[in-house]
Specification:
Order of helices and strands: HHHHHHHHHHHHHHHHHHHHHH
Number of helices: 22
Shape: globular
Mean pLDDT: 82
Radius of gyration: 22 Å
Strand content: under 5%
Low-confidence stretches: none
Structural class: mainly alpha
Largest sheet: none
Helix content: over 70%
Length: about 450
């Protein structure tokens, strides 16, 4: 609407600040994105009505189109894992192996197993066993929260995992889930080591300060006779990983196949779970499975779509081109400028998925034309989206704290260290590796 660069920048800044304030006040992220879009549209180079009624909804639609089946089958798999007792069976096995004296490790192991299979709702699954285990070990709930969530950035965004975030860059960069595997695993290992040292520090600190369990009186109610076997519970997750590896070989070119094949791998996991656990699946009924399971992640899909739509309107602002030129004009390695720009956008969007969906259309092809290694760039983007996406007003922060019944005052500091500080460290490590080992052609 306003083409003056400085006036445009003012409206964009106001829109972003408004978005942050609304999220911090507890307004639904999708609604906050829509309201903020009204302000951002004033700084757009398009007509106001075009930004609101065309650019924003087309952004929502494009993300929903791309990710619909990934979110659907991820929600379905997570629902069946939970409702059939498979998740509890996995947790029970981890407890049997590690014991309640290593309760935090049992929580972490359960979370990692679910994350490796791309179960995006893992936090809802793990919390079922986390609180009782923290009570048994007499440790604060925040220790259990970090045990479950603290390792997620290193697993979900560093390791080659068949999940929603990992599938997003593929259609823009022409990559697959398993490109640059050494870089991915090395970066993930840095994040894992940082997490392990910090978790042990939290436990030691709690013991020294006499901090015990601070939640409601809960019991770990697991009737082993009613649960599926561990093998029947974990094989569906193995099927997802194996299928994703096989299907990655079929992903060719700049199309949506890489994304849809992730969904297909998750569907294979659903089929294997149903076959191996039919007696636990049958009582649920097809109607309930489809109505509650398949739709379980649709709300998050729309939420991400609204934030992406907001980002699309922001990209039409008159101030964006000068920003692009400034970033690309820096006399630095393209990998460094990519990391910096992604981190900034992640801070603005407060969501890693949305940050990628803002950055990739703006910069993706430009960086490929500069000769960067697509696989290395993909991994750098994924891990860097985790740097500043978990600021206090982020939806993911509110969700994690809410699930564990904690407030920002009680546990945000620990969450900040594991979801902001550590990702900054392993993203810098990843960037250094990109510069040293993945030269620009």
């Amino acid at each position: 609407m306003f083409t003056n660069v400085y006036l445009s920048a003012l409206f964009v800044i106001c829109a972003v600040v408004l978005f942050i304030i609304l999220c911090f006040k507890g307004v639904h992220t999708g609604i906050a994105a829509l309201i903020s879009t009204l302000v951002a549209a004033l700084g757009s180079g398009e007509a106001f009505y075009v930004s609101i009624f065309e650019t924003f909804p087309s952004g929502v639609a494009s993300l929903v189109t791309l990710m619909f089946f990934v979110f659907t089958f991820s929600g379905l798999l997570g629902y069946l894992m939970d409702e059939t007792g498979c998740s509890k069976a996995v947790g029970k096995k981890m407890i049997d192996i590690l014991g309640t004296d290593k309760a935090w490790l049992a929580i972490t192991a359960t979370a990692v197993i679910l994350m490796l299979a791309g179960v995006g709702t893992f936090i809802y699954v793990v919390v079922v066993v986390a609180a009782p285990l923290m009570k048994e070990a007499n440790l604060p709930r925040k220790v259990g929260m970090i045990a479950a969530q603290g390792i997620a950035p290193a697993i979900n965004f560093c390791m080659p995992v068949p999940n929603v975030p990992g599938s997003l860059p593929n259609m823009f960069l022409g990559t697959s889930l398993y490109d640059a595997p050494v870089l991915s695993i090395a970066t993930g290992c840095v994040g894992i080591v940082l997490f392990l040292f910090y978790e042990l520090h939290l436990i030691k600190k709690a013991r020294v300060n006499g901090e015990g369990y601070d939640g409601e009186d809960v019991e770990l109610e697991i009737n082993e006779a009613e649960l599926p076997s561990f093998a029947a519970s974990v094989l569906p997750l193995v099927a997802v990983v194996v299928s994703a590896i096989i299907f990655s070989r079929l992903s060719v070119g700049y199309d949506t196949w890489a994304t849809q094949l992730v969904a297909l791998a998750q569907f294979v996991g659903v089929v294997v779970l149903v076959i191996l656990n039919w007696k636990h699946v049958k009582p649920l009924g097809l109607r309930k499975i489809l109505s509650e399971g398949a739709t379980g992640m649709w709300g998050f899909l729309m939420l991400a779509g609204c934030v992406y739509g907001f980002g699309q309107v922001v990209t039409t602002a008159a101030c964006v081109t000068p920003i692009q030129e400034a970033v690309l004009g820096l006399n630095l390695s393209p990998y460094i400028t990519a990391m910096i720009s992604v981190a900034v956008i992640a801070a603005l969007c407060t969501d890693g998925v949305s940050a990628m969906m803002v950055w990739l259309p703006m910069f993706g092809q430009t960086y490929l034309d500069m000769g960067v290694n697509a696989g290395a760039l993909r991994r750098l983007l994924l891990c860097t989206t985790q740097t500043f996406d978990s600021l206090p007003h982020a939806q993911s922060v509110a969700l994690t704290l809410g699930v564990f019944g904690l407030s920002h005052k009680q546990a945000y500091k620990e969450l900040f260290i594991t979801t902001v500080v550590f990702p900054v460290i392993f993203s810098i490590f990843c960037c250094i590796c990109c510069v040293l080992f993945y030269g620009v052609a």
